[in-house]
Amino acid sequence: MAERRRRLIAGNWKMNGLFGSGRAELGKLARKSMAALRPEVDIVVCPPATLLRPFADLLRKIRAGRRIALGGQDCHGEAAGAHTGDLSAEMLRDAGARYVILGHSERRADHGESDAIVCNKVAAAHRAGLIAILCVGETAVERAQGQALTAVRRQLLGSLPGSASAVDTVIAYEPVWAIGSGKTPTAPEIAEVHAAIRETLAARWGNAEMARILYGGSVKPDNASALFGLPEVDGALIGGASLKTADFWPIAVAAG
Ligand code: PGA
């Protein structure tokens, strides 16, 4: 029988969280995941980079490191050098990260990250031994013009280095218009894009059965079960609802 893809639930805290409150929230999540969650769901928390090291220390102290992994939200393409304010994938790994979100639409928009830049960053993540969570997604205008699949395929092919595989790369489909808006695509729209992503990966890799494809954009406790019911959805990338364990935990439970 074919191996099953493990579900993955990733929380993207974005530029939110200070040491005290963040630590308390992570502690709550860790205790819940150790007490209840079936281990076939991978949980990743991507806090601001300033919190990676203290969070890694906390997870080690309470022995929750096997239940919750940490991730960064961006990295530079180089390992080190004269790049004021930037962080390398090696630094994220050194601080305790195992994953890194790359190509998020907020990075693409706020920092002008092209597919080529994102591709370089994904390769850097792999060089450092991190799993890349590569984000792709169409804008509202692209969807209105019937260009959603074209836009997603173009981003995917342009942002994916030749050496990437299903082991070191997770794809997150995040329609730009669904992020933080409370709007989500319909189930058939999500299924269509996820199938197109898997087909595109299969054309590149020969086989993409084990590739994990997440949905992201206004995932909440009340829509999580319906999302995880879609056969092509292997988990979620969650922004706003990842900041409070009271919201994040029910989503993780729905995935299990
Ligand atoms: P949201 O953000 O869940 O707040 O819509 C998702 C994301 O940007 O990753």
What do you see in this structure?
The protein is of the alpha/beta class and 256 residues long. Helix content is 42%, strand content 16%. The protein has ten helices and eight strands. Strands 1-2-3-4-5-6-7-8 form an eight-stranded parallel beta barrel, surrounded by six helices. α1 links the parallel β1 (7-12) and β2 (41-46). α5 (115-127) packs across α7 and α9 (221-228) runs parallel beside α10 (245-255). The longest helix has 19 residues, at 187-205. 47% of the residues are buried. The model has no long low-confidence stretch (mean pLDDT 96). 2-phosphoglycolic acid (PGA) binds at residues 12, 174, 179-180, 216-219, 237-241.
**Rg calc:** 17 Å
Structural category is alpha/beta
Our estimate of the beta-strand percent is 15-25%
Counting DSSP E segments of at least 2 residues, the number of strands comes to: 8
Structural shape: globular
- What is the overall pLDDT average? 96
Helix content: 40-55%
Largest sheet: 8 strands, parallel, barrel
Low-confidence stretches: none
Order of helices and strands: EHEHEHEHHEHHEHEHEH
User: Which small-molecule ligands are present, each listed once?
Assistant: 2-phosphoglycolic acid
Distance between the termini: 21 Å
